[in-house]
Design brief:
about 260 residues; alpha/beta; Nucleotidyltransferase, domain 5; 5-stranded mixed beta sheet; 11 strands; about 25% strand
Length: about 260
């Protein structure tokens, strides 16, 4: 089986694939202070809970946007599975031409999103990932990545209000029924959640306009996408596991390669 590891700024998401089927997935809190041994304790317990043997894993693909954790994850894979992971970058065979000024600066998660979105749904497509940051990516019908944008994520926006003001509380990221809040908490939720929904709708409209692709397919993913999707006016595909699927596809395109 293939173990896909996506190391993000807020969470580390692990997915276990049996062929093309995602058998299990787990989400850990990202902690830059943890060692490979400490992370291995958590992963071993998750494997045991899911009745999976470490020996069932014969391949690993790794995407990381947290540089200090990349060597830690490499050591973890070596010690736990005696394998070398395929590490995601634009230098791999991706089936996408990266038409930006500095492809090596592309985040590994965005590479996986683009590969997953384009290979699963075709182009032209707009992939929106709602995580620590909210990212937009555009891939043409013939597989060219033209660029995108990066905006603050829902959690960052919410936490900013809490940490940068004297009286505003920390809130749950719930979507109020209307755009008129009746107290401080619901007004903050309106501003953060509905504000993000309107931003996503507006950015999609503008990307379609600027690229001349009014019918570009829209795919939403990311840990916080479920908060936004129900409020969107834009028709979209909601694929919460797109990044993991993108990692699986990248491994299949580069089978046998390690870095």
């Amino acid at each position: 089986m293939l173990l896909a590891i996506d190391v993000g700024n807020t969470n580390i998401v692990c997915g276990l694939f049996d062929g093309t089927v995602l058998r299990d997935s787990w989400r850990l809190t990202t902690d830059r202070g943890k060692t490979a041994d400490e992370y291995s304790v958590f992963i071993r317990s998750l494997f045991q809970f899911s009745d999976v043997q470490l020996g069932d894993v014969d391949s690993v693909v790794l995407a990381s946007v947290v540089p200090p954790l990349t060597p830690i994850m490499r050591r973890l894979v070596d010690r736990m599975f005696h394998l070398r992971p395929l590490v995601v970058s634009t230098a791999l065979n991706t089936n996408i031409k990266w038409e930006v000024e500095s492809p090596p600066e592309m985040g590994a998660d965005r590479i996986a999103d683009c590969v997953g979105g384009y290979m699963k749904y075709g182009g032209p497509c707009i992939i929106v990932d709602l995580g620590t940051a909210t990212t937009f990516n555009f891939v043409t019908g013939d597989g060219r990545y033209l660029g995108g944008s990066i905006a603050p994520g829902l959690l960052n926006s919410s936490e900013s209000l809490f940490t940068k003001t004297a009286k505003l509380p920390r809130i749950e990221l719930d979507r109020p029924a209307t755009s008129i809040g009746i107290d401080t908490i619901t007004q903050m939720q309106v501003g953060v959640v509905w504000g993000m929904i309107f931003m996503v709708d507006g950015m999609i409209q503008r990307i379609r306009q600027d690229t001349g692709c009014p019918d570009a397919r829209v795919i939403l993913t990311g840990g916080l996408s479920g908060v936004v999707v129900p409020g969107l006016q834009t028709k979209c595909v909601h694929d919460p596991n797109l990044t993991l699927d993108g990692l699986r596809i990248l491994f299949e395109l580069n089978r046998g390669g390690t870095e």
